[in-house]
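Annex B.
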Amino acid sequence: MGTLLHFKSIYLEAFENCKPEFVVILLKVYSVFCVIMLFMALYAFTYRAFTGFKF
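DUF6747 family protein: predicted structure tokens.
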């Protein structure tokens, strides 16, 4: 759990004192989008690995 809190603090620190607010919002939305896409790729890989689907 400490690792997740550390990543959260790094994430929040990265956007401190950034002035163009729309750029900050865009980057935050993009980072969430990237995390969702990463989890979808991991899910697809594990699904294919466990169901025996040929790559």
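DSSP finds two helices and no strands in the chain. Residues 21-51 form the longest helix (31 residues). Further annotation is deferred to the next reporting cycle.
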